[in-house]
Amino acid sequence: MHWSELPCAIEDGDLWFAATSADADRAKELCRTCPLQRSCLQGAIARQEPHGVWGGEVFYEGIVVARKRTRGRPRNGELHQRDLERQARANLRKNTPEAVA
Question: Is residue 72 situated within a structural domain?
Answer without folding.
Answer: yes
